[in-house]
Amino acid sequence: MNRPTVFVDMLSYTGTKGGMETYTRELYREIGSMDTAFDFVALASAEGGRMDLSWFPGEVIRSRISGENRFVWAAGELVASSLHARRRHADLVHCPATLGPVRTSMPTVLTIHDMLYWSHPDSMVTPFYTKPVMWMERRAAANAARIITDSAVSAAEIHKYLGFPTDRLHVVPLAAKAPGPVQRDGVGENLVLASGQRRPYKNWDALVRALALVDESVRPRLVITGAGPGPDPLEDVVRRTGMEPWVELKGWIDSAELDDLRRRARAMAYPTLAEGFGLPVLEAMSIGLPLIASDLPVLREVGGDAALWFDPLDDASIAAAITTLATRPEVAQRLARDGLAQAATFSWRRVAEETLEVFERTLRESAR
C-alpha cells in the first residue's frame, strides 16, 4: 500500500520570517526523527531554496518563486502551490505559515499563528497590504479542512474573525529551540535584552520610556536587537528620553552574539501588546533567562507563573519590573528556576505528534 504524501507549502520560508520559520523548521526536523506513515515533499521559495534545508524529511522542490517579492509570492501561494501539489499526486497539503492556496483538489491543513492583521490592523508596518493579506487569510481558511494554531487565544480569534468552526480547530502549543551553547552563571550583568522586529505592536517605545523612569543608580543597560535595514525607528525615542548612554540598538545578529547576550543578561523584556503565542518568552525560559513581560492572556498561556508580569500600557509598571530585576537577585534566581521548569512542559516531539494526528484525522475524513 502506498504511503500518503504530504505536500508542504514553504514559499514563505526565506530566512526573514522569524517565528513562523522556526515553527516550520523545528516541526519538520522533529518529524524527520520519527517513524511516520507519511512521505513528505516541500515547495521552497527561490530564497529558501538557496538555504540549508537538510532538516526537511523529504524531497524539496526549489522553485523560482520569490518569497520576498510580495506580488510574485502571493500568486505562488494562491495558485502555484496547488498546481505543484497536484503534479506530485499529494494526498494532503500542509501550509505552515498562515497563508495557502485558495483551492486544492486534496484536503489542506493550515497553520495560522496569529490574527494580528484582524485584531490590530493599525499596528501593521505595511498598511497597504493589510486588506489583501486579510483576504488571502480568509480564502486560505475557507479552503482548509482543518486549522492548527498555537494558542487558545488565537483559536478564539480565528473563530471570531474567520468564522471557522471550532470543531475543526486544533490548539498545538509551540516549543523552544534547543538551548545550544548558552550556559548562564548566576544572575547575570545588570543588562536587559529585548529582541524583535520594529512593528508598532511590539511596544518597544514603552520599554525605552520605562527605562528612563528607573533610578539612574540601579538602571540597567538595555540592548534591543532585530532592527531592519536603514535608520532604526527607535532612535527618536532613545534621543528624546536621553537614554543614549543606556540603550544599544542592534539589527539582526548572528546566533553566537545572541547567545552571548542571553548568557550575560539579567533578564529578557517583552513589552508586546499582542501575540499569537510568544515564542521568545518560551525560548528565554528554556535557558533560565529571567523574563519580564506584558500581562496578556496569550503570554500567560506560555509563561504561567514563571515571569514577572507588567501592564504594557503603563510605563511605570514596566519600570517597576525592571527595577525589581536590577535590585533583587533572589527574584531573578526564582524566575530562572521556575522558567526552566515551565519551558520543560513544552516539546517539539509533542508538536510533531499532535500535528501528525491532525494529518491522519484529515485523511480519514476525506476518504469517507
Descriptive overview:
The chain is an alpha/beta fold. It has two domains: 5-175 and 347-366, 3-Layer(aba) Sandwich (Rossmann fold); 191-343, Rossmann fold, CATH 3.40.50. 40% of the residues lie in helices and 16% in strands. It is built from 13 helices and 13 strands. The protein has a seven-stranded parallel β-sheet, with helices on both faces. Strands 10-9-8-11-12-13 form a six-stranded parallel β-sheet, with helices on both faces. Helix 1 (19-32) packs across helix 13, helix 6 (204-213) packs across helix 11 and helix 9 packs across helix 12. The chain is globular, with a radius of gyration of 21 Å.
Summarize, please.
The chain is 40% helix and 16% strand. The protein has 368 residues and is an alpha/beta fold. The chain is globular, with a radius of gyration of 21 Å.
**Secondary structure category:** alpha/beta
Q: How many β strands by DSSP?
A: 13
Biggest sheet features = 7 strands, parallel
Strand order of the largest sheet: 3-2-1-4-5-6-7
Rg is 21 Å
**Helical proportion, percent range:** 40-55%
Give the CATH architecture of the largest domain.
Answer: 3-Layer(aba) Sandwich
For this structure, what is the CATH homologous superfamily of the largest domain?
Glycogen Phosphorylase B
Q: What's the N-to-C terminus distance?
A: 18 Å
Poorly predicted tracts of residues: none
- Summed over residues and divided by their number, the pLDDT gives a mean of 93
Report the CATH topology name of the largest domain.
Answer: Rossmann fold
